[in-house]
Amino acid sequence: MSQKVTVFGSAAVDLMARASHLPTAGETVCGSFFTQGPGGKGFNQCAAAHRAGADVAMVTKLGRDSLSHVTLGVMEELGMRRDYIRFHDTASTGTALIMVDEQTSQNQIVVVPGACATFTDDDLAAAAQRIRDSAYLLLQLEINQDANEKAAALAKQAGVKVIINTAPYRPMSDEFLQGVYLVTPNEVEAQEATGIEVTDLDSASRAARVFYEKGVENVLITLGARGVFVSAHGREAILPAFRVQAVDTTGAGDAFNGGLLTALAEGQDLWQAARFASAVAALSVQKLGAALSMPSREEIDQFLRLHP
Prior knowledge:
With 308 residues, this protein is an alpha/beta fold. It has helices at 41-51, 68-78, 121-132, 145-157, 174-177, 187-194, 201-213, 252-265, 270-284, 297-306; strands at residues 4-8, 12-19, 31-39, 55-63, 85-88, 94-101, 107-112, 136-139, 161-164, 182-183, 218-222, 228-232, 235-239. A 9-stranded mixed β-sheet has the order 5-4-1-8-9-10-11-12-13, with helices on both faces. It has a 4-stranded mixed β-sheet with strand order 3-2-6-7. The chain is globular and about 50 Å long.
């Protein structure tokens, strides 16, 4: 049986264009495709967890504008809970401007947090009981950091395990990291946080030790197509990624974190959860978009059966 989990973080509307190549500074490129849909790291991760079968609630903040209806409409369509959505009267709903290279599937993203940079104590208080009732709280760094720190402190006091996806990277206090159950940076964020370039098992292990010195209990470092470095329960290894044909890598890290949250809520250990999360990410990159590309539990289970 799945335990309750909560995602506290950002929601935005993704405005995504594809082109033959990504523009350089000052260059205008003619695109071949455009779409808009719900996104934001927090929302993507919650959508991934929800689609994977988790009992998950999203705590986020939107503007009172037309873009908010994009997020709310998809939440209703997917059957996601909307109890903990907060609104700002003047700030806009967050947006993400995404450009995708249709040759390589690489992307460039500019995020404007909008209402997600305005979380207050009242917003946290409205979700406090849900957080206390959760087994895990998943955070990112895409909202105002003082709210993240207060949410983490609330969870730790209640014995809730805190997971921090360190994206998009910003400096974090030692107090914020102290007692955190798990951090999930990618290799770039791991280098920014520790000063160690992560290129192999040895360098990943050295980066993990920096996190351990700050009081983090476990470390996962996602390595893109190379897989994921797992450091947990006295073991360290790089689990190879599933080999798939990527169409759009936007949201792959969010798919991973949402899948990880789901597996942990179901009682899987970190090694099993990392494999499950890798499957969610592998399926997500085979579709266009972020939140709407998250696979169903049926798709995940079938994929894992075909890739024992």
